[in-house]
């Protein structure tokens, strides 16, 4: 969102709006399926769809590749942001940037792995709530300091793709971030983790609507802050340091620190679920139950933690890696949508709970949207190489 806002202003707001709308529908139907049937997504794909086993394995591989590559970028961005915050107040550490960034990445990774070993969903949820709250408040407050022109916001709701190099890639990355297949596939296990039953159908629906609205509001605020602070000055964010060089002279140390804490919270709130996602999907496929105390869970998350250190260790540009990685998240999205469409329209599985025509139309539109974005992502990658 920061790269999009700083590079193209509010031009991609329409992509964000559609992604969040379709995400809300998918969060809702995946949660409902689990509450009604008691089954999780990939477990149901494997057992009830003709090509479900192959589909489920392909989805696990696709999401693991996209999410772990994303993890490298996020860890690199987070470590660099923490370093830049320290450098604002302690300039003497600048000469030790590489060593400091690696040290920060190792410490952050170790802390997150230790938190994972606690192994309770309610604990994970509390950690995420803290990070996301800080992120939301930071950018909402920043929005009062720097904001885009209202006319640019309205123009952003008109569909258009930046006709410049990297424009298509960013559109695909946008959808890969806000309409991520991993979000919907993990929903059933999180619903189970909250202890919800068929009696919580209304609560689940309300939760899905609030989730979609909050993702849109917070993401739009981030993009708007980047537009107001960076785009109008012609300062696109290519690397983390770009935020420092542009924002500090304009907004001062306090606003810059606030902006950075929001960005850091966005990164840290993403690390946690990404470390969880592959064990969640494998457990889903195997039995539909996640055992966070199992040896399998500890080994997979430990490997993911080591994988996260690749970008900091090799000193790659984490912003570029992060955008590139998000594109891969859209390729399995059509499969994830088609799979749930078949399941929720199976009267025997749904025990008489009929899916409404409105929801089915929404899913068809979501499928078409995902196919267009996937094609766009392939075109962007072919153009890149």
CATH superfamily: Amino acid/polyamine transporter I
CA-atom Rg in angstroms: 20 Å
Separation of the first and last Cα atoms: 24 Å
Mean pLDDT: 83
The chain-level structural class is mainly alpha
Outline type: globular
* Strand/helix succession: HHHHHHHHHHHHHHHH
Q: What's the number of extended β-strand segments?
A: 0
Which regions are unreliable across 5 or more consecutive residues at pLDDT < 50?
Answer: none
CATH A-level architecture? Up-down Bundle
In the CATH scheme, the class would be Mainly Alpha
Distinct helical segment count: 16
Strand content: under 5%
What is the CATH topology descriptor?
Answer: Amino acid/polyamine transporter I
Fraction of residues in helices?
A: over 70%
In total, the number of domains comes to 1
GO cellular component, one term: plasma membrane
Organism: Ulvibacterium marinum
Pfam families: Nramp
Membrane topology: Multi-pass membrane protein
What's the SSE blueprint?
Layout: H1 2-8, H2 13-37, H3 41-48, H4 52-89, H5 97-116, H6 121-145, H7 150-155, H8 167-178, H9 181-193, H10 201-229, H11 240-286, H12 295-308, H13 310-314, H14 318-328, H15 333-344, H16 357-384
């Amino acid at each position: 969102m920061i790269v999009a806002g700083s590079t193209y202003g509010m031009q991609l707001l329409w992509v964000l709006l559609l992604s969040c709308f379709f995400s809300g529908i998918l969060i809702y139907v995946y949660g409902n399926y689990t509450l009604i049937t008691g089954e999780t997504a990939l477990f149901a794909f494997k057992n009830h769809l003709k090509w479900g086993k192959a589909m489920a394995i392909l989805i696990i591989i696709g999401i693991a590749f996209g999410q772990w590559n994303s993890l490298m970028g996020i860890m690199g961005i987070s470590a660099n942001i923490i370093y830049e915050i320290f450098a604002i107040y302690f300039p003497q550490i600048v000469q030790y940037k590489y060593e400091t960034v690696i040290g920060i990445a190792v410490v952050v990774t170790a802390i997150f792995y230790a938190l994972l070993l606690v192994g309770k969903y309610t604990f994970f949820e509390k950690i995420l709530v803290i990070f996301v709250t800080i992120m939301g408040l930071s950018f909402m407050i920043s929005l009062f300091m720097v904001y885009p022109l209202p006319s640019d916001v309205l123009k952003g709701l008109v569909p258009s793709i930046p006709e410049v190099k990297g424009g298509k890639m960013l559109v695909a990355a946008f959808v890969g971030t806000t309409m991520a297949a991993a979000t919907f596939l993990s929903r059933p296990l999180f619903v189970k983790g909250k202890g919800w039953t068929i009696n919580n159908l209304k609560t689940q629906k309300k939760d899905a609507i609030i989730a979609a609205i909050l993702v849109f509001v917070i993401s739009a605020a981030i993009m708007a802050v980047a537009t107001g602070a960076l785009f109008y000055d012609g300062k696109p964010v290519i690397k983390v340091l770009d935020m420092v060089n542009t924002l500090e002279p304009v907004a001062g140390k306090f606003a810059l620190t606030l902006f950075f804490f929001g960005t850091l919270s966005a990164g840290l709130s993403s690390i946690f679920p990404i470390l969880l996602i592959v064990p969640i999907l494998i457990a889903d496929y195997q039995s539909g139950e996640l055992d966070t105390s199992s040896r399998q869970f500890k080994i997979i998350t430990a490997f993911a933690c080591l994988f996260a250190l690749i970008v900091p260790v090799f000193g790659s540009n984490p912003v570029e890696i992060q955008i590139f990685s998000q594109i891969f998240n859209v390729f399995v999205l059509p499969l994830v949508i088609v799979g749930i469409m078949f399941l929720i329209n199976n009267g025997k599985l749904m025990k008489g709970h009929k899916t409404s025509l409105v929801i089915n139309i929404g899913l068809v539109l979501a499928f078409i949207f995902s196919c267009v974005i996937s094609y766009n992502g392939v075109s962007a990658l072919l153009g890149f190489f």
